[in-house]
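Design review, sub-item: ligand-bound model
Attendees: FS, YL, KQ
YL presented the inputs for the S-adenosyl-L-homocysteine complex:
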Amino acid sequence: MSGKVYLIGAGPGDPGLLTLRGKEILGRADVVVYDRLVSPAILGMCNPCAKMVDVGKMPQHHKVKQSEINKLLVQFAKENPSGTIARLKGGDPFVFGRGGEEALELVAAGVEFEVVPGVTSAISVPAYAGIPVSHRGIATSFHIITGHEKDVIASEQSERGNLSLDFEALARCPGTLIFLMGIANMEFIAKRLMECGKDPKTPLAFIEKGTTPYQRTVMATLMTAGETIVRENVTAPAITIMGGVVELGKTLAWKKNLPLSGKRLVVTRAAKQSSGITARLNALGAEVIETPMIETRPVDVKEWQDLANFDILAFTSTNGVESFFNQLFASGYDVRVLAGKKIASVGKITEKKLLEYGIRCDYVPEDHTGECLGKLLAKTSSESRILLLQGNLADDTLPKLLPNATRWVVYETLPVSELPEWKREAVASADAVVFASTSAVENFVKVMPQSTEGGAEPRISFCIGRMTETAARNHGFEAVTSDETTMDSLVKKIVEYYAP
Ligand code: SAH
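KQ shared the predicted structure:
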């Protein structure tokens, strides 16, 4: 018996290009083994309880050897007999991703696996630069080629490099040529292609960090490829695309340079509250690292048999619903314990969450507030025995209006005490951090203590509220504060700061 390994393609960078299947598996994975090119936004979609293993490869020196990765996958599958092991790789796992080697090892070890294809950078990165890899009348085929084999850096000295490419065939080929991993060898590759007869005027584009907020396209020709890489400092990850289709990129480059393009921002609000601002900042071109400073945890309910003593169960948050049912199921019960009870919800969102568990609500107040719920329930029979299922920070509105009700705390909200390593790294490389409360500032400096080398972390903060601003300044942040205490106003300020 061993767990199942999923070889998942993460796509080229834009988290929106991860497949639905990939996302679903990451959400329930027990172990995630990931590569360097996988974006923090996608790592953020992984089951928060998953063991996160970074086998990322730095250019030139492999962090974890491929043979070790293969062994690790087998080992994790054996250690987690009914577990889900996600092997998350950039682009598509079978396009220069060594996914085949991993799969062979899994077969040899008798470990079940599944391949979840990804959007390969070879096609999507040109697309984000407005370059179609094929085009009627220009290119009737395209070829994806590795410009780098087995750590070989080709050079004049190493003659044809140890690159085993058939340059004569490639030079004759009229289709679009797409090189992955080829930047270090491109001068050599271009020279060989020209020697073999490819037109030196062939248009060529380097696309760096495609589909991410840092995407950059640099145009050249086969002739000027080498010097352009040096002059423009083209760096990995980048794709080189050659052929007539490259010209189309001049007309079709659709990805706008947005006001926040190339900025990495940390948002410290709780996930549920932050998705609005995250979407807005993303739309303005920023990369957002959601790093909530509080987290909710279920609180153990021991007295399930006491449920029999209540007629009405009232839920006031989706967290409450989730914690309640997760624990109910974990304790070996099921929804039959709710038979005959009336169910109340504070509002539509909580009501919808209850429906996911197959439970319809009997009471939902018009106004979606605790007060309205309290008044509504107070009107039910005075004999009704009411149970409030809430979090530790719930206020006394309901207990005051319903003095005979009982309250069970089913979840608690706590400050985050630690960030996973991948997130600390992502946060440390961010340009700025967004704070909406003094407690967020205080907790942030606790979980991101200043590095002794100094200054690796973001030193700019965007704050809501004067108190927050003061706290941020006290901790050495430069602070820019919104005029009003709204997210709209804050987003406006961020744009003004970066794109005045
Ligand atoms: N399996 C991956 C490719 C892995 S090889 C895929 O299907 O995309 C790694 C190479 O892919 C990099 O050296 C670079 O050439 C290319 N690459 C991956 N992501 C890229 C990106 N966002 N922008 C440009 N090139 C990228």
